[in-house]
Amino acid sequence: MRPNGTDPSSSSGGDGEHGWSRVTSMARWLARRRPPAVATPAMSVVMPVYNAAATLAECLTRLFQSTFVDFEVVLVDDGSTDQSPAIAANFPVRIVPTSGRVGPAAARNVGARAAHGPLLFFIDSDVMVGPDTLARLADRYARGDVDGLIGVQAAAMRHRDLVSQYKNLWMRWTYVRQTGEVPLFYTTAAAIRREAFLSTGGFDEGYGNPNVEDTAFGQKLARLGIRVRVQPELEVEHVKRYSLAGLLRTDFLRAVALARLKLRHRAELARNNTSIPASYIASVPVAAVGAGALVVAPVLGAPALGGAGLVALAGAIALNANFLAAIRTSDGWGRALAATPLLCLELVVVGVGGGIGVLTYALGRRY
Q1: CB neighbour class for 334 (10 Å; exposed up to 12, middle 13-18, buried from 19)
Q2: What is the DSSP letter of 83?
Q3: Domain boundaries, the chain
Q4: Smaller CB count within 10 Å for the chain: N or C?
Q5: CATH of 8-242, one of 3.40.50.740, 1.10.10.1100, 3.40.50.720, 3.90.550.10
Q6: Hey, which bits of the chain come out as E strands?
Q7: Is the pTM of this model over 0.85?
Q8: What is the pLDDT of residues 333-346, one digit of tens each?
């Protein structure tokens, strides 16, 4: 029998066939070192999984190397077609299947309802916790002054290419700078009291794909008066590699979805209830106008218009000086300078996405 009580013969092939001998050995060792399961653990780690074979074994291994041991893992298999269920079956986790592919929002709701612990800790299957992450989380909750806590991405991560590190530092910087109670819930690593979670009805299942479901949920928590704070000491590594096309596609789709989310809650239009700095939001139309001027100027034979476009782009860069400074502090001047044209390109793509979000909302598209 495997550590979770399943029959290994139910999976096709053996450890040698899949190259999992090290995974299986580590999982068995981790299972032996854990104390006997209790009916109600102090914490439930809820993890939606879809085709995560590349990172799942390491993710689970890191969890079970935690110094804090009074937790369960509720792994929601969202219709994986790779070896994710077989990999998970080698670890002492509870595997809860969905009825086909339902998306991470619905999968998290399934996991939360199946969880036994009074504290839910949501992480993704490509997130690596540290040995003390769960202990820090439990200690912080013991103060009793919050309902939800958000972790942050560590500055150091294994993918060191410009695009991946740019995105990693952006996600870190936008959350580390938050103070006090926030209308946010960043599900790369975020915890909430199970009672509070269930009282909200959970994530909006209108989001069938990974998008802004966590942003929408954070805003819902704020409307309901549920207290959430960012905890910078809860650092995790998000093992996500981005290509340039992948980054721009992600940011475009998020801009479309954020515009629609804003329009669904028009009473909050004037409020910045996202993690995105107001200076970045202001720089989006500035960059779009600047890029447009640079494109049109040669066609019209108007060098003055091109000059105005350059000034606008310089203004957009200046509005994001704090973020570029964070890149410089973390990775040096060279990386900060290399990130500057990437930032300008991203701003233009986000502007186009936001415009399309507004237009499609007017045509009846709500998600």
Answers
A1: exposed
A2: S
A3: 8-242, 244-367
A4: N
A5: 3.90.550.10
A6: 43-49, 71-77, 94-97, 119-123, 127-128, 148-153, 189-193, 228-238
A7: yes
A8: 999 999 999 999 99
